[in-house]
Amino acid sequence: MTEWLIKNASHVVTMDDDRRELEHADILIRNGVIADIGPGLTTVGETVLAQGCVVTPGLVNTHHHLYQTLTRAVPAAQDALLFGWLQTLYPIWARFTPEHMSVSAQIGLAELALSGCTLSSDHLYLYPNGSRLEDTIHAADIVGLRFHPTRGAMSIGESDGGLPPDSLVESEAAILEDCIRVIDAFHDPAPGAMCRVGVAPCSPFSVSRDLMRDAAVLAREKGVMMHTHLAENDEDIAYSLEKFGCRPGQYAQDLGWTGPDVWHAHCVKLDATEIALFAETGTGVAHCPCSNCRLGSGIAPVRAMRDAGVPVSIGVDGSASNDASNLVAEARQAMLLQRVVNGADAMSVREALEIATRGGANVLGRPDCGRISLGSRADIAIWDVSGIEAAGSWDPAALLLSGPTTVRDLFVEGRQVVRDGQMTTFDLGAAMERQSVLARQLSEGT
Prior knowledge:
The structure is a single chain. The protein contains 13 helices and 17 strands. By secondary structure, it is an alpha/beta fold. The chain folds into two domains: about 5-55 and about 370-425, Urease, subunit C, domain 1 (Roll), CATH 2.30.40; about 60-365, TIM Barrel. Strands 1, 2, 3, 4, 5, 14, 15, 16 and 17 form a nine-stranded mixed beta sheet that branches. A four-stranded parallel beta sheet has the order 6-7-8-9. It is globular, with a radius of gyration of 21 Å. The mean pLDDT is about 95.
């Protein structure tokens, strides 16, 4: 039996069904599960003192491209819109190897962990030079985060009117065959699973309608979730209207891509009809505010989505378009952008934090995560609010207004992954050194 006791937390934001907030509370962790919450608890295991700290559920990241941590701030892509940005970066990504995929995933996941994230999805849609999905799965195991990788794919290259170079696309039969392989090898449907696998054709402009339809059928046969990009910017809408004769929401519905087992990334340009469709069907959205700003895509109608009942979550997106993998900063940006559009009362700090915790867990089909409640998985972030970032704050739980952007401690499945602001699970410094070498080689064309 493994036990931990988080002792005397100044403030606990539970995000449980009643959204309780507790003062001077203890949290007992036993065998990866939250076993008790309240004052005066004891343990036979280790104790972590949490005075001067706010404790929250671990944050949940619902959209990422971890391989992109190797291509941050590429000069030729710094000021490009989405399609031009992709066309600049595709030739660089075509040179990646399994080592590039593994090291970049370790760095991205560690950055997420330090920002309070305990559960992350990833959308890997290109597999050059022998790369495979398990390159990232093994990286997540090393870092210690709960992981929801998705087997992405591109099947329409430039010669067939798509955006990606032909060297990065795969045959659709091979894509579906590999989806089956990775699901059978790595997907764990059990409560408390550390790895679940999804099916994720990249986007409407890089795969065929047949692959979208077949992928949906396969995913439902296997009982796994489905993910793709949708309605990201004006170019995306124009492409859908020209190629398919309909808006992205209709395209998704026609091909079986709506429902509680589906979540779409971005959805910046959803209209009222599409929002109503997603609300009615329980289709989830991964909102990626920083990336949408960086690429000039716009501000997603999150307030309208939430009010309609669409399940909304937060994603950092890839580090080539966000430049960071900081989930608590992403949640703050989501809150601020809704205020820009709709006024200062459009989104509270607690609503934004809810979207980043239980909201993300719900979108990923993980009601066992994203909240601090009896029986939930012990995925817990401890934030030290005694520093300068929160000095003078009247509300210690208002982390997104005045609080740290890195955690003091992080637990995943009851395992301490971050201690005193440092990774405990692997040698992050060595991984960063190797990352720097790989990035330099890519930039020099060697």
